[in-house]
Amino acid sequence: MKEHQPLISIITVVYNGIISLEKTILSVLGQSYQNIEYIIIDGGSTDGSVDIIKKYADRLAYWVSEPDGGIYYAMNKGIDRASGEWINFMNVGDWFYNADSVNDVFGANDLSDYDLVYGNTEKRREDKSEIYIPGDASNFYKRLMIHQSTFSRTALNRKYKFDTTFKVSADFDFMFKVFLYKHKTLHVNVVVSSFDLVGFSHDNRYRGFSEDRVIAFKHKGNLLLSCKVYLFYVYITGIGKTIDLMKAYLPGVYKKLKKMKG
Description:
The protein is an alpha/beta fold and 262 residues long. It has two domains: 8-203, Spore Coat Polysaccharide Biosynthesis Protein SpsA, Chain A; 215-261, no CATH class. The protein has helices at 21-29, 49-55, 71-81, 101-106, 154-159, 170-180, 200-203, 205-218, 223-237, 243-261; strands at 8-14, 36-42, 62-65, 86-89, 95-96, 116-124, 129-132, 150-153, 185-196. Strands 1, 2, 3, 4, 5, 6, 7, 8 and 9 form a nine-stranded mixed sheet that branches. Strand 6 and strand 7 (129-132) form a beta hairpin. It starts with 7 loop residues before the first strand and ends with a helix.
């Protein structure tokens, strides 16, 4: 085991999540990796979630319960409170795959040269589960990293705070910036977390597809990658739903190509 174990800030965002909140909390507090600070940001729950948080308050680095603007507002609040070298978001309804998940990532690996490290995820449905392996810089838009299985440097999270104009895909926007600006990333072949497919992003997946396209074209610094993302989401959602976006985007493409040519 490495002598240096960096402090990991684990952040849970919750709003009326009493059904699964305690399991999420226990999965964090039960990690064998010792150098963890745990932060919980509650959006003003009224279902008893706060009572569960108070039950474990003496083992938390920080917690708050107050109304906020939604999941990404809450995640940004957690970033502001984090003092660790790395951040992981383990939101309510999800949990670490086993007690050694964090240690399997940080206990034996030298990550000093990397800005973001990510592992595999158990995706859960009501009747079955599967192990999901994310992509890399070449195809992350097809096989996005799951933030519950991702650890990113706190400085990176503060540099690229979640864009709260996006309601579903601000994490995609964050990943797009990571790869667009060529930050060093590492995939580790470890199942880090267990992720509930029947959650907010899944329930809003078509809105997510729409936001993903907007994000791809917002970052026009990489024209080829933007076009790849566009074609992928045309395939996923159908050409009919992308006509308006195409009308808005094509003039920008023309101007960029003209500038490159001139």
